[in-house]
Write a structure and sequence with these properties.
Blueprint lengths: L1 H23 L17 E5 L8 E3 L4 E7 L10 E4 L4 E3 L16 E6 L6 E11 L6 E6 L7 E3 L4 E7 L9 E5 L4 E3 L16 E6 L6 E11 L6 E5 L5 E5 L2 E5 L13 E4 L4 E3 L13 E6 L5 E9 L3 E4 L18 E4 L4 E9 L2 E9 L3 E4 L22 H8 L2 E8 L8 E4 L4 E4 L2 H5 L8 E4 L3 E2 L27 E3 L4 E3 L2 E3 L9 E4 L4 E3 L2 E9 L7 E4 L3 E3 L2 E8 L2 E4 L2 E4 L2 E3 L2 E2 L2 E3 L2 E4 L7 E3 L2 E2 L3 E2 L2 E4 L11 E3 L1 E4 H4 L19 E7 L2 E7 L8 E3 L16 E2 L8 E2 L8
Parallel strand pairs: 3-7, 10-14, 17-21, 29-30, 30-32, 31-33, 32-36, 33-37, 34-37, 35-38, 36-39, 37-40, 38-42, 39-43, 40-44, 40-45, 41-46, 43-47, 44-48, 45-49, 46-50, 47-51, 48-52, 52-53
Antiparallel strand pairs: 1-4, 2-3, 5-6, 6-7, 8-11, 9-10, 12-13, 13-14, 15-18, 16-17, 19-20, 20-21, 22-23, 23-26, 24-25, 24-27, 27-28, 53-54, 54-55, 56-57
């Protein structure tokens, strides 16, 4: 028996030991034991707009993603999930170029939680003609509710007010990427009988084979909208509609005892009582207006007409604090007030000021900056006791509260008014650098600005991780150069992307009437003189001279990578890079009435005007480049595999003994054609915005109407 017990005990100990050793050999995490995982797997890899599920082969370490042919594979940002505790490089959401990944897959390395175990995945992104043939959006201006779309049944229903004529409606239509639709969006159609006979729209997928037919019905319903959308009185200063309260502000001196005849606009199909244009007595009391919707529902509006003070920004600027702090000393102007002695209290954020002032000509200025600092806490003031510009901007983006009285009496009640955004005035290099503090502001140059005091300028809206994507900050405001120039700008960031005066501009940005002279800009990708990457804004009446250099791709004299509109502009800067290099821009967008004459150099996809057109996006009209000075025989490097269209009047001009010899692009598609022709046929010559070209005679370059003299 003892031998049996000893044998069983030994067997138990052995089994426990073996079990323990077996559990530790895998190196995986042990929830009960606190170990770390050696799992290094990509569990999910997706790209927005991909055609089907991603194919991940963990054993082979390969990943395949299929994208529509219409997608540009140069800039894709995959979303990646990995094993718990693991990390991956390149990181998730980091932009990558997959255009050559079929032959040269992009490698992603996963490092497990243990910091030692790694696994490399080879990622291929392949273009495939999409078979998706869906209407993703179908809207008509003035419709009552959201459009009903049933993709499975191919049914679309829209409800319109009874007052809308259904015989000529213009739908806006969005379809699957690369697909087309017939009839096209933007074309008027008769939907008056669509309830009985729905209008058919046929979507053809990118593959040219797959189709889907949608039956569209537009139905008329009585609208429940009962709104006053506009209320104006002749001669008014302003009219504010806030919920169901309307206040009309009249100029100082208006006889309020006389009746007024307001012009009123209401919701489609609705009526208003009293009617528009009918005389009313507003003196000493409110007038109530009743709006009746198509379905009989009603809204009542209370309308008051009076003379109230107006608050606005003072149109002139004051001295600068430096370091990019922009402010105005006499920041606010109160107008439409009686002349004589007036007491006022004005509140702006945490700022409050009370004073008796003698008013002349119906207005006075409120000085916000306080050199004594008595009205501010320490953190609101700069070193010299002046109100910090950021604090001013934070306050004026909200409401201003004013109390105004005659003499010592405060006998006019408080009122609130929202102040419009400030128009900043730029005078110094520090002012230009200070644009970074307010990326949606409106800026105007007051004079030429020398930037040589800043050795290495930090681009406006520059916000990224080195080697990674742009990380959020985008310029969305306006810069008006007023014909002045920014000179001697130097930016030396050869290992960084999105390098230019403005690093990244969104589709609301407007840059106009400005010149950059004698600039020296060095970057990596997306490098330009004025803008590094433009999402879709406007560049108008602007130019660049000097040098722009990118270490890799997407380099342009004026704009690095363009998805916006460039018009009436030029570059005489020398431009160099590796791939996608152009005298004006590297690729994409719309170019009108513009030119480039600087030297352009690179290795692949180089053009005198544009590096390489981007399919679906490029439209170039009435623009030229200089073959001789640029060293490039083409305006946009033409790849016969690119099916780009819409390129017209793109011309190369050779100054040839007083004559102009031109290669005029007259076609598009897979086999564009050329002919020698008079390059200026169809161009707008004159001396104004509508006719921007000025012809100076034989042997001289044509210039733009706003240029003071011909540029070299």
């Amino acid at each position: 028996m003892k031998k049996l017990i000893i044998f069983l005990l030994s067997t138990f100990i052995l089994s426990v030991g073996v079990s323990s050793c077996g559990g530790g050999s895998s190196g995986t995490s042990n929830p009960g034991g606190g170990g770390v995982s050696n799992q290094a797997l990509i569990t999910s890899f997706t790209i927005d707009g991909q055609l089907e599920s991603t194919v991940i082969n963990d054993n082979a370490g390969t990943i395949t993603v299929y994208m529509p042919q219409a997608n540009d594979l140069l800039r894709l940002s995959p979303s990646i999930e990995v094993s718990t505790g693991a990390s991956v490089l390149p990181a998730s959401e980091e932009e990558q170029d997959f255009s050559d990944s079929v032959d040269n897959p992009v490698e992603y390395t996963v490092t497990a939680e243990d910091g030692t175990t790694t696994k490399v995945y080879s990622v291929t992104v392949e273009s495939r003609a999409s078979d998706q043939a869906l209407i993703t959006s179908f809207t008509i201006d003035g419709q009552l509710d959201s459009t009903f779309i049933n993709n499975d049944a191919g049914i679309i229903v829209i409800e319109m007010p009874l007052a809308i004529d259904l015989t000529s409606l213009i739908p806006s239509i969005e379809v699957s990427i690369g697909a087309s639709v017939v009839p096209a969006g933007g074309i008027a159609q008769d939907f008056s009988d669509s309830d009985a006979n729905p209008m058919e729209y046929t979507v053809t997928a990118e593959d040219g084979i797959t189709t889907k037919v949608y039956s569209v019905t537009v139905e008329s319903y009585a609208s429940n909208q009962a709104l006053i959308t506009s209320f104006t009185i002749n001669g008014q200063l302003e009219s504010n509609i806030d919920d169901n309260i309307i206040n009309v502000n009249m100029p100082l001196g208006t006889d309020l005892t006389s009746p007024f005849s307001p012009i009123i606009e209401v919701s489609i199909g609705a009526t208003v009582d009293p009617a528009s244009g009918v005389e009313q007595d507003f003196f000493g009391s409110h007038v109530f207006y009743t709006v009746t919707a198509e379905n009989g529902g009603q809204s009542i509006y209370q309308v008051s007409v009076g003379i109230s003070p107006l608050i606005s920004y003072n149109p002139y600027d004051a001295d600068r604090l430096g370091a990019g702090d922009l402010y105005k000393e006499d920041l606010l102007t109160v107008s439409n007030v009686r002349d004589g002695n007036n007491r006022y209290i004005i509140t702006l954020g945490d700022y409050s000021r009370e004073e008796i002032i003698t008013v002349t000509n119906g207005s006075f200025n409120v000085q916000i900056s306080d050199p004594n600092g008595s009205n501010y806490s320490d953190d609101e003031l700069t070193a010299d006791g002046t109100l910090n510009s950021d604090q001013v901007k934070a306050g004026v983006d909200g409401d201003v509260r004013l109390s105004l009285g005659i003499g010592d009496l405060l006998n006019i009640e408080y009122f609130n008014q929202t102040v419009n955004k400030e128009q900043y005035i730029l005078k110094t290099a520090n002012d230009v650098q200070g644009i970074q503090h307010d990326l949606d502001g409106d800026y105007t140059l007051a004079n030429d600005i020398d930037m040589s005091s800043i050795a290495n300028f930090r681009p406006i809206a520059y916000d990224k991780v080195p080697g990674g994507d742009h990380d959020g900050a985008k310029f969305s405001g306006t810069i008006d150069g007023s014909g002045y120039t920014i000179n001697n700008l130097t930016i030396d960031r050869e290992n960084e992307d999105y390098i230019a005066l403005i690093s990244y501009a969104n589709n609301e940005a407007i840059i106009k009437n400005i010149g950059l002279r004698n600039i020296t800009i060095v970057g990596n990708d997306d490098v330009g003189g004025l803008i590094g990457f433009s999402e879709g804004g406007e560049v108008v009446n602007s130019y660049v001279s000097g040098s722009v250099s990118g270490r890799r791709i997407f380099v342009g004299g004026l704009v690095g990578y363009n998805q916006g509109n460039i018009s009436n502009s030029y570059s005489i800067a020398s431009v160099s890079g590796d791939e996608n290099v152009g005298g004006l821009t590297s690729r994409g967008g719309t170019i009108t009435n513009s030119y480039a004459t600087g030297n352009v150099s690179g290795i692949d996809q180089i053009g005198g005007l544009m590096g390489s057109p981007l399919s679906r996006e490029v439209i170039i009209t009435n623009s030229y480049w200089d073959i001789g000075s640029s060293g490039q025989n083409v305006s946009a490097n033409e790849d016969p595999d690119n099916n780009y269209t819409g390129v017209e009047n793109v011309s190369s001009i050779i100054n040839n003994g007083g004559t102009y010899q031109a290669s005029l692009k007259i076609g598009g598609g897979n086999n564009p054609t050329y002919e020698v022709a008079d390059v200026f046929v169809g161009w707008s010559f004159g001396n104004d915005e509508d006719n921007p070209w000025v012809y100076l005679g034989d042997g001289q370059w044509p210039i733009l109407y706003w240029q003071e003299e011909a540029q070299p």
